[in-house]
Sequence to fold (726 residues):
Amino acid sequence: MFDDPLLLARLQFALTAATHYMFVALTLGLAPYILVTQAVAAVRRDRARMTAVRFWGGPYLVNYGMGVLSGLVMELQLGLNWSGLQEVFGYSFAAPLALETMTAFFVESTFLGLWIFGWDRMGRWAHLACFAVVTATAYLSAWWVLVSNGFLRHPVGFEMVDGTAHLTDPVALMTNPAATLAFGHVVTGSLLVGALVVAAVSAHHLMRRGDSHRIFRRGMRYAAITVTVLALPVAAFGGTQFEIFGESPPTSGLTYTAGEIQAIEAAHEGGAASAIGTAGGLTMFIAWSLMSLIGPAMLLGWLVSRFVEVSRRWTRVLVPLLFTPLLPYAASVGGWVFRETNRQPWVVVHHLTTADAVTPLSPGRAVLSFSLFTAAFAILAAVTAWLLVRYARRGPEGGPLAERPGADPEEPAAPVHSF
Amino acid sequence: MDVLSCALLALLFTGYLVLAGSDVGLGMLMPAVARTPDQRRRVVAAIAPYFLASEVWLVATVGVLAGLFPVTEHHVVAELWPVLVALLAGWLVRDAGLWLRARIDRPGWRTACDGAIVAGCWAVAVAWGLTVSGLLTGGLVAGLFTAACAAAVVCLFALRGAAFGAERLVGADDGDSADAAARATRPLARVGLVLGVLAVATAFLPAGPVGGAPVVAAALAVVLLGALVLTSGLRGPMLSRHTSAAAIAVPGALVALTADLPTAPVPDTTAVFVWVWLAPAVPVMVLGQVWLYRMTRRPAAEPTFFA
Fold:
């Protein structure tokens, strides 16, 4: 089984994409929260909120770095392992990805560098503006990637010229419902990931009564409101996509006739991919059902703690929150598995099969590439998860962006005589 | 439109070599220029802001190659697959070392991460050497030119790193690393000169470069050798900041102007679509790059996120 280059290339991409998306979801989920906190801190010159920005910024950066690493591998893997896709759909599928690298990632990484190194070197408004650019480009990046991904599901706006797809309608490409709805789904889903991570970290510190800067009470309130408000929209954005899943794309027939399409699909009926896809969909639905209960429960707890003084000591009830981030992560990965397997046997629906898109690799090369990058990803994901938990438990004083004692350029300490 | 798109690709690739040459090269030289833990910390602190802003040039190169020049990309991937996988692996190891180094405050952890950075930088430089020679010869061929050209590119990376270190490692009390880096520029330039001459000489043997435009190639070779001659002299270390940049830009320009790569005209709609979106982003891209490079001219004295 493991000498089939196609299977290895598919498994490798699935693992890369799933790992990458877990980092991406937390980046997208935390960035707006950090941005708003920093904006309020800048307006009110509030040191406590700035401490919160430094605290949440630590795990954000570690997570971002690993997101970049997995993203690099993913981008190059498209070229290395899926050259058939690039060859036929380079001008339509890869053009949004090219724009992603330049208009989004290029700017995001540079301005994140400015944010990291600018704490003591620029004014507070300039520093805030840098993170605003980082947040905006993170979302722009997700948008371009989903325009590309939506094209695979629902290819629109091109004509075939000598076996190559030439873009004819960029507007259709960008307003593709398979992209816009997916963007809404990914944004709301990522905000849920971010909110429940904030909730879990806050619960940990509130249980230990360590909240001298009110970071964690504010975090809890943010998480309660976000989870309550977004539970329905995330399902709505996901559910409306089912309408496109059933229909043929408008470009159907440009490459294969209806009869050929039926024959290809009939030959791939059932199989492991569809079973895995069903499992992914089921995981997503169960995780979402549980998540939809968390928001109201948190709001209730918050109200009770506001009005019943004594209830603030019952921190044991927060224990379940420590594990809630698992739910949105499971839902995200399950959702992607569902979306991507649902498209099979096609990589571009009704135009290119997955089997035709893979680079003709020798089994040796396929095994090398698969084992190398899978092992690297397993290590990276494990180290990152461990570091994130470690920073989360340490609190505001121990993070990588925390102000160091003695770093203040105030009066130098008087020399101490020691004889 | 095609000329503009080609120029964009060439600019991104050459820009990557010039900018990333600094941080990759300094990473390669870390064992030579930094001996104490604090010196190593300062080396990583000098690399850290740079690598964030320089590797995006390569990501953009790959993006433009895939979106506007899929035919070229297909050829490059098919011919250079093993080298590109090695490049990606080296890149991954190096960046993991950089991101993770300051995460755990233990000497053993830092040593392991420093090892990853150095090994990754060397892997990246060697992979680029083979990529450049492979692009010039039209595929991975075993030959004298491949060896000379790859070695010359690796040497140019190291030279660029040494020049960068001489400039950025200057500190209040330990000028040692900066001096070591400055001293290294002269021997590196001399080695580069020898390898450059060898590459020019072996270019006429079988298994040499297959591209056209011999006049352009000769002119670029003159630029490269001239820059290296200047760096080899007594005033070398002082000029090296500019000469090393000119020298490492030459491989990029050679690939862009002389390599025999298959291309297809970019379809108009795709080109317009990309340029309409790219144009408004360019000022922001330039602003961020210039700002970051200017702001971090001196590595932070206090420990930062990376080191």
Notes: The domain at 2-295 of chain B is CATH 1.20.1630 (Formate dehydrogenase/DMSO reductase fold). Residues 2-33 of chain B form the longest helix (32 residues).
